[in-house]
Amino acid sequence: MSKLWGGRFTKETNKLVEEFTASISFDQKLAKEDIAGSLAHVQMLGECGIIPTEDADKIKDGLLAIKKMVDANEVEFLVEDEDIHMNIEKLLIEKIGPVGGKLHTGRSRNDQVATDMHLYLRTKTTELIKLIEDVQQALIGQAKEHIHTLIPGYTHLQRAQPVSFAHHLMAYFWMFERDKERLIDSLKRVNWLPLGSGALAGTTFPINRERVAEILGFETIYPNSMDAVSDRDFIMEFLSIGSIIMTHISRFSEELVIWSSQEFQFVELDDSFCTGSSIMPQKKNPDVPELLRGKTGRTYGNLIGLLTVLKGLPLAYNKDLQEDKEGMFDTVETLEGSLKLLAPMIETMTVNKDVMRKAINNDFSNATDIADYLVRKGLPFRDAHEVIGKIVLYAIQSNKFLLDLSFEEYQGFSPLFEDDIYEVLAPEHVVAVRNSFGGTAPEQVEYQIKLAEGKLQR
Ligand code: ARG
């Protein structure tokens, strides 16, 4: 059988053109969605009397048989048939005869492909939400073990104030929580139905778009056929959200790489999540977090790629839009792969509490607390800051930390110091007194984890 659109042509398509314009090598990933869309469409055509019910039934049977073949990987898709839509239609006509040609009544590939993409992203978005929850669950699991484990908190990668390790981990929980909310919210727009828009202007047949929306589970119908076939904002939105998710994954990965370095040794990634060096026998490399960090780049590329494809396109459909797919598939697969690895990597990592503790004992991250101490004794904060700066300098010069200085030394800097200063300086105390809502005190972290668990129960 020749091309489905061959009637107007007098020449065969150039082979290079055929290959260049075909999308079947990648859009075969939409086979299930394409069949689902066709099933709904033909059901509606039959119900509306646009085609006879017997024909609609034959087409449905044919499509279901093709679906089985697709599921069993038995279909050989052909480049000559360009894309998934024409491959399936051609298979259908081969299977059930010319009546299969009635399927495309009142429809165009333009509203068809947009519908397939909406269906695909709906499924994938829902699956990704679940995968994010697995990561959140893993973070909560580790956090619960480490409410009282202290780690230096950093600003400018300089030790700033000690924090609960659970608090640090839970920071990522909330980032992923917002990512999840963004995905959930995006479903509102993914759930708009393009089908029934025709090539760009609607159709002459008395179709029932509400019925198709009902069968396919769409909440809204695009009220403008030109918009429906030519915008890809739902994909741009998905790629933006995907990029944000990968940014969060990448930051966390960077911390894992730093924390598992010889210089930090705060955590150790499980052997099953690391790889060795082909030349240096001692090496245990954090390849997984490195690659998660690295893969973030392609998701940004996919977003920028699609934004650029769309920015100069006149309405309505243009073949450029076929470039919307590979980046979307790639971001979906990158997210799936990344989230699936992240959860067990978090679950299996070992936390070196003692090393973290040693780091805290050997730093000045309690300096803010003596400043606050003097403020509570009546000194203005700026003056207190100045006094403590001098104390820190003195301590550095005498090779001591704040807890090592004698009471006489403190008194030498200010008569306001009393012997309760040592309690104030203890790291546990430093953490415990940051008991404002959202702070790192164990009481707050426990409450935060409770809130977090509530988010997972929906
Ligand atoms: N493969 C095409 C795409 O992905 C399907 C729509 C083709 N429509 C057309 N008029 N050429 O965009």
From TrEMBL:
Pathway connected to this protein: Amino-acid biosynthesis; L-arginine biosynthesis; L-arginine from L-ornithine and carbamoyl phosphate: step 3/3
Family annotation (HAMAP family): Arg_succ_lyase
Origin superkingdom: Bacteria
Biological classification of the source: Bacteria, Bacillati, Bacillota, Bacilli, Bacillales
Gene Ontology cellular component list: cytosol
Domain Fumarate lyase N-terminal: 7-301
Catalysed reactions listed for this entry: 2-(N(omega)-L-arginino)succinate = fumarate + L-arginine
Protein localization: Cytoplasm
Major location category of this protein: cytoplasm
Enzyme class of the recorded protein, top EC level: lyase
Keywords from the named record: Amino-acid biosynthesis, Arginine biosynthesis, Cytoplasm, Lyase
The UniProt record lists the keyword Cell membrane: no
E.C. number: 4.3.2.1
Name of the protein: Argininosuccinate lyase
Example GO molecular function: argininosuccinate lyase activity
Domain (Argininosuccinate lyase C-terminal): residue spans on this chain: 364-432
